[in-house]
Amino acid sequence: MKNHYLLQLLIAVCAVLLPVSALADSPVRGKVTDKNGEPLAGTMVYEQGTSNGTMTDVDGQYSFTVSSDDAVLTFSTLGFKEYSVSLAGRAVVNVTLEEDTETLDEVVIVGYGVQKRGTLTGSVASINTEKLTSAPTDNLTNMLGGKLPGLVSRQTSGVPGDNEAQIYIRGVSTTGTSAPLVLVDGVEREYSNLDPSEIANITILKDAASAAVYGVKGANGVILVTTKRGDVQKTSVTYNGAVTLSQNADMITLLDGPEYAYWHNLASEMDGVALEYSPEEIEYIRNGGDPQGIFANTDWLDLIFKKVAVGHNHNVSVTGGNEKVRYFVGGSFLDQDGIIDNVWFKRYNLRSNIDINITDRLTLKLDVSGRIEDRHQPGVSAGSSDPTASLDNGGADYGYKNIVFYAISARPTVSPQLEDGTYLGYYNPLIARDQSGFNDKNNSYVQTSATIEYRIPGVEGLVAKGLFSYDFQNAQQKYLTLPYTQATPTYGSRNDDGLLNMTYGPSPHHPTGVNKLTETHTFFRRFTYQLMLNYAHTFGKHDVGADLVWEQSGTRTRTFSASKQDFAITEIPDLDFSTEVTPNSVTGSHADTGRQGLLLRANYAYDSRYLVQASVRGDWSAKFRAGKRLGIFPAVSLGWRLSEEPFMSGTRHILDNLKIRASWGQLGNDAISDFLYVQGIALSQNPDVVINGVPSQSLSTTSVPDRDISWEKTTTYNIGADFSLWQGKLSFEGDAFYKVTTDILQSQSGQQPPSIGGNYASIINGGIVDVRGFELMLGHSNRAGDFIYNISANMSFARNRYVSTNDSENIPSWQSKIGQPLGGVLGYVSDGLYQTEEQVAILPKYGDVKQGDIILKDLNGDGKITAEDMTWIAGSQIPEIMFGLNFDFAWKGIDFSMFFQGAANTDIMLCGNYSALGFSNGTYYTQAFKWGSNPPKYLVEGSWTPDHTDASYPRLTLNPSTSNTLASDFWKRDASYLRLKNLQIGYTIPARLTKKFFVQNLRVYFNASNVFTISALSKMGIDPEAPSVNNGYYPQQRVFSMGINLSF
């Protein structure tokens, strides 16, 4: 090899500097080559049991002195199998190393089977168990972002047990559901709460050639999760355990008590109204001493958030087997406290995977897994990740009101409690946390599958398989809401005794003042049948394969819910303890779904150089009427391994693999409600007609059916290239793709004039969306003696846009969705702040404005600001670019790793995405002192005042003008970030010490997650992955853990 590495030089220097005292009088020399006789430069040669060693030169030659003439030499270089040999008195030892083809021969999980990585023609990415188990986590989805090119993730909440990341493959390509299809061991299942110790591999199928085998559900990409199985080995027991300490990663910085009083008074002064805080009251706030006990300097966030939350997780697995039976049995337990008291999550996992060779040709696989999840929160929820749950459109359920919301709503100038125990403040997070009731959720899962494989005699390579899977889930929720009473001071209003007047009222989360218990039970069942014929055989230079798969699956869901209220005793929360049924609270529903599919796939390779694969799948869906149910989804892919061509033989000492590939395919989507092709009938909840003198419930028709509704179709084009150099030391994978979705299943709601009166189909096939992008992955790994390192980076880019929509034709061109990204925000264009009275007088405006308010542009030129001046002002919060950087180092028993995750081309709206219609944005992060709330520091310190006209934010006021509260690009921020997602250092105790205690491997480690984030939002205390409406966001957690890995 002609290539030189810096590390090779370092090792050579180390070899020269080896202590002379360690050397004896037994010189040895030789040459190291590959199977073609090419010299292997940079091969490490060392004497076992000593520090003696050297490295081959550019001609593969080596020489050094060993301690004895019967020493054992070990030869090691990346890309070749390690080899050891005894000198046995020889002075010359020439060695031919065997190429380690593990990378090219590595088996990759694909749809309904496996393929060697070297012969893949589709776009596939995978990650193995070592990367998954490197850090403790309570949700698997939070470990994937940035680790697999093409996969985009957003974690919008840190609530234990409810912190699942949103996952997208190659972005969003439809207006409906964009979630990828997830299969665990070949069966559609939920995977986020699997324990990472159960998993062997996760693979994502990105292009149509890879995902089209799943037809109906593969349009958004496919995630294949493969769990661990037994092997032919002695029984091995493994234990992994960790203790975790969690704290808030990012949290908004609010005003303290004295600051609040100062800025509130200044806002009052600018508004020309009486000051709310007197000098005496400000002194009470700053130093205490209020005789009434009301005024104080209270840090509500500090009161509700613990310094750290403690958690622990443990898992034990037993693996082993012989030629007849192989097994993997594992169990785990996770216990995670929330950063808020009275919030926790517990999970119990159990799995058994058994493989039985009944005969030499017949194999049976029996898989059983179970999981129990327990979640607990107060009656007022811990936090919200819903970007539509705003202050101004919360609705009757007050869904936006949660404990974190209460903490940022409460004034920091008020004491939490009076001496008599009365809680102060309309939004008091302490009483909401401790006395609002509880919300308990218990989910239990049992998942079973049996697979039988038979290698058919007489036809080599022909295998028949059958799979049957039956899964069931029971979900139970018990939700008790308890009213409570708190006192709210009436600021600026005192009685004859000089005391501040108080208002006593019911809790804001339950204004009726009546306790209520709701119980909900959901029973879910899923069955899957698969029959397969797989054929694979090699005829000389011809590799041929074919698969025939028939699949049928179905689900059944039953839900029942009931509520009672006005309990005399709430200490025993049971429906029997109340006789007052909440009106219209007893409900029930059921839904059955079914689907069939037939797949034919064939692949061919000539001399491992020319590769082709083609497939066609037909799916029948009950979501459409007879005659529309069948969808046909074809795909084809080609590959050319240039590295195997004779004209490339001169590069084989450098080039291990070079492959180019291309694919085309179509996939489908039927993600709509059932029975939209028939006329629906609704029964009124209460009697509303009189028939023969009897009050009766009436029947009414629902929306008009669409008998022509059918499949949404996605066509994907993909080109890619893979190469690796210097026995795998350097590797690259790249893909470029174009994806177009047609006949999108989308709603017509709001698209027709009121005169039609709802006489149109609610869902139709209409609209086109396309996505274009690319993915890159670059990796470098090497070994220099005991020092091993691996550096890899990947980046994904996916940009979508509307090509055609069913929008009304009379909308202004600047409001058209055509060319705009999905998830974009409609609002007003700003033009700075009003600075002079002249600007206020002559510029178009919306409502009453003053100096320091936001100027909105009049796009249609009619001299006023109306809804027609709205346009697309921001893109989606789903990033167009996602990337990851991974560093792994190991030296002797020490290992160290860092993983950086990042995203770019993503926007966040401080005013919230729900303001797409231009309504009041309603967030505390854009309106200081809204409803008396505590504003962020940046909002008041950067606000416009007559003495601070070069301001970042509008004028300081208690009553902002409408132009300040409308959705506009003034509130748009760049949400790009770089996050040190994970850092770990570990040490493996030498085996010579652990084996004395019958321990095969013992490793201890320290791990930190969400260590730091670099973002323009960081100085504001806003997490870039937070939902756009930040009222009540439960922050992501920074987690520190100490753990142990043990096997024997």
Automatic annotation (TrEMBL):
Membrane-related topology note: Multi-pass membrane protein
SUPFAM superfamilies reported in the protein's UniProt record: Carboxypeptidase regulatory domain-like (SSF49464), Porins (SSF56935)
Pfam families: CarbopepD_reg_2, Plug
Top-rank lineage group of the source organism: Bacteria
InterPro entries noted in UniProt: Beta-barrel_TonB_sf (IPR036942), CarboxyPept-like_regulatory (IPR008969), EF_Hand_1_Ca_BS (IPR018247), Plug_dom (IPR012910), Plug_dom_sf (IPR037066), TonB-dep_OMP_SusC/RagA (IPR023996), TonB-dep_OMP_SusC/RagA_CS (IPR023997), TonB-dep_rcpt-like (IPR039426)
Positions of the TonB-dependent receptor plug domain: 120-222
Classification via Gene3D superfamilies: Carboxypeptidase-like, regulatory domain, TonB-dependent receptor, beta-barrel domain, TonB-dependent receptor, plug domain
Signal peptide: 1-24
Keyword Transport: yes
RNA-binding in keyword set: no
Keywords: Cell outer membrane, Membrane, Receptor, Signal, Transmembrane, Transmembrane beta strand, Transport
Annotated Gene Ontology cellular component terms: cell outer membrane
Places the protein is found: Cell outer membrane
Main location: membrane
Family recorded in the similarity comment: Belongs to the TonB-dependent receptor family.
The protein's name in its UniProt record: TonB-dependent receptor
Protein species of origin: Candidatus Cryptobacteroides faecigallinarum
Organismal lineage: Bacteria, Pseudomonadati, Bacteroidota, Bacteroidia, Bacteroidales
